[in-house]
Each structure stands twice: as C-alpha cells, then as structure tokens.
Design brief:
The chain has seven helices and seven strands. The protein has 198 residues and is an alpha/beta fold. The chain is globular, with a radius of gyration of 16 Å. The termini are far apart. The mean pLDDT is 92.
Length: 198
C-alpha cells in the first residue's frame, strides 16, 4: 500500500517540477515478473524509475542507507532489501512473481559516467530465469548529482526502457564465474548502448 501512495505522490511532484519523458514502456513484460536494472547518477533515480515503471519494484538498497534515520523509515515502508544479505530474499521475491530492482554500479556515479557493474543482476537472472529489464535514466545527474543539496527544477528527465534480456536459468547451486561475467557484460552493454543513443 505504501509503495503506491509514495509513487502517486512522486508522480505528481516529478511531473509538476520537471519535464518527464518515458520511452519503451511497451518492452515491459506483461505475463511475467522481472528484474529492473539501471544506471545510477543521483539519489533521485529510484524514485524516477518507480514513477516510470507502472509495476511495484522491490529495490535492493545499500545497507548503509538503513542506518540513516528518516531514510531508513522510508525504504522500509518501500520494502527495500539491504545489500549483503539480499540475494536469497531477492530470489524468493522473484519466485513469488514479484519484481526486483537494483543499480548494478553499486552506488551513484561521481562524474555521470557508467561504472563497472557488479554481478548481482546477472546472478538473479541466472538463478530464476526471469527477464532482466535494462533501463537508462537521463537528466538526474544534471539535476541532482551526488553531493548536491537542492535539485535544479524544470529540467528534463528521461527514462528509456530497453528490451528484456534473458539469461539461461542454471539449476546448480554454484554458478560458473565465466557465465556470470558474460551475463554481467551483456547487461552493461545494453545499458551503455542506450546511453550512447541519447
């Protein structure tokens, strides 16, 4: 319930104070749940992505954020999972046909450029067989980069939703590291190509 209340509130705020555009919504699977992955340039990104994707997303958030008083209250209401112990819980959510979202760079970019990806998204895709939805968020680095206290209003925010990526499901407990790296590379390449496309 709280997710949809906050989503409705932020939808109004974003559309009121920014020029908001979404492309590729038709790429979101209708018959299955999915894993959302996106570039990460600003603290605004989870909110922006939540407004762009019309389905509930259970985010994996940095464990340190759960130590910040007011933020801890908010992300718990949003049913986010802390990094470090999230893998099993995220797999359980995906098996229960819920959507999981994460930012594979592991934190906000300091210069707006795409960083190296961690393997979590590929691992979830391989373990569950669920499609991975690559997304690109444009504009938030210019509006509220890391370290900024106030956003620059009435700028353009654009979200691009790419075509789903399917990684072959692996039933073994141990996942081949090379296959995991290949999956991670495939996800990063899809996002990088969308970024370069503007």
């Amino acid at each position: 319930m709280w997710y949809w209340i906050f989503r409705a509130f932020f939808t109004i705020v974003i559309r009121l104070f920014f020029k908001f555009k979404v492309e590729g919504v038709e790429n979101i699977p209708r018959k299955t749940n999915f894993i959302v992955v996106a570039n990460h340039n600003s603290w605004m990104d989870p909110v922006v992505l939540g407004v762009a994707v019309p389905k509930k997303i259970n985010y994996i958030a940095l464990r340190d954020l759960f130590e910040i008083g007011w933020l801890r209250w908010y992300i718990r209401l949003m049913e986010a999972l802390p990094t470090g112990s999230s893998s099993k819980k995220a797999i359980d959510l995906l098996v229960e046909n819920k959507n999981v979202g994460l930012f594979p760079e592991g934190g906000c970019s300091r210069d707006g450029k795409l960083k190296k990806f961690r393997k979590g998204a590929a691992l979830l895709g391989i373990k569950t067989g669920r499609p991975i939805m690559p997304c690109v968020i444009l504009g938030t680095f210019q509006i509220l980069p890391r370290g900024a206290k106030f956003p620059k209003l009435f700028r353009t925010i654009k979200v691009k939703v790419g075509r789903p990526i399917y990684l072959l499901k692996e039933f073994e407990e141990a996942i081949d590291d090379i296959y995991l790296q290949q999956g991670t590379f495939k996800i990063r390449k899809a996002i990088e190509e969308m970024l370069n496309g503007g």
